Amino acid sequence: MLPEAVHLALTGAAIIVGMMLALWIIHLLIRNAAIVDVGWAAGLGILSLYYALAAPGYPARKWVIASMAGFWGLRLAAYLFFARIIGHREEGRYVQLRKEWKNNLPLRFLFFFEFQALLVAVLSLPFLLACLDTRTPLGLLEKFAAGLWLVSVVLEAVADQQLNAFKKNPENQGKTCRAGLWKYSRHPNYFFDWLIWLAYAVFALGSPWGWLGLISPALILYFLLGATGIPATEAQALRSRGNEYRAYQRTTNSFVPWFPKKEQA
After folding, report:
1. Do 223 and 193 meet the contact criterion of CB atoms below 8 Å apart?
2. pLDDT for 184-239, tens place per residue?
3. What are the residues whose beta carbons fall under 8 Å from the beta carbon of 10, sequence distance 6 or more?
4. What dihedral do alpha carbons 11, 113, 128, 210 form, nearest 10°?
5. How many CB atoms lie within 10 A of CB 228?
6. Based on the number of CB atoms within 10 Å of its own CB, is 54 exposed (0-12), middle (13-18) or buried (19 or more)?
7. Which pLDDT tens digit goes with each residue over 129-148?
8. Domain residue spans in the chain?
9. Residues 6+ apart with CB under 8 A from 26
């Protein structure tokens, strides 16, 4: 199993490295580095389908995880493509990166794009582990994980739709979305996105070496809470909305949805 797993992992990584190289070239032409986010999401969907096709595992297990990850990744890629690329200027996070990096921007962004490719390869571990598992039939843990995934995908899509509808209204320019799920969390999309990753890891947990799949939700949580997710998003929100966003921070949980606090007088 180990030689086959290594071969599949290396081949999958090579596919995504090549894809990110192509997207890096495109970003130079359109001057919008947010296309890396489209590649990140699409790459995860592509790898899940590749592992399902190439790995020797139990077909039902392979195609359940491939359907879950493939649908999620390609849906997110399409959403990001239309929400951040077509007809849009470069997102504030990447504008800020250009200001901070200043010199050798093409080379710096090349490393950034390829780091995302390697991250995709690591995060896809639950897909690979599940697709290598030849045991039958599907277990209760896998069925529970599929249910958790379905609920989380629906709620993430609801959060995305609510934010998109808010942004499309010209009257909301410069304001913070507090509608629907955004009333209970400043980043409900991130929270349900993390639950999706937890579902992938739980699905793979019963497979041989399945505990390695827990690396994925752990990494996602780190990036969301401490690195490129919430900190970068909120720094941009504070730059663009200032005190209005600070008031939102005081009343609304950052990550886990919960009832809002009352604004202190």
Report:
1. no
2. 999 999 999 999 999 999 999 999 999 999 999 999 999 999 877 899 889 888 98
3. none
4. 140
5. 12
6. middle
7. 999 999 999 999 999 999 99
8. 2-251
9. 35
| Tokens at 210, concatenated | 């399945």
State the Cα–Cα distance between residues 197 and 245, nearest whole angstrom.
28
Q: What single string gives the DSSP state of each residue in the chain? A: -HHHHHHHHHHHHHHHHHHHHHHHHHHHHHT-TTHHHHHHHHHHHHHHHHHHHHS-S-HHHHHHHHHHHHHHHHHHHHHHIIIIITT-PPPHHHHHHHHHH-SSHHHHHHHHHHHHHHHHHHHTHHHHHHHH----S--HHHHHHHHHHHHHHHHHHHHHHHHHHHHHSGGGTT----SGGGGT-S-HHHHHHHHHHHHHHHHHTTSTTGGGGGHHHHHHHHHHHHSTTHHHHHHHHHHHHTHHHHHHHHHS-SSS--PPPPPP-
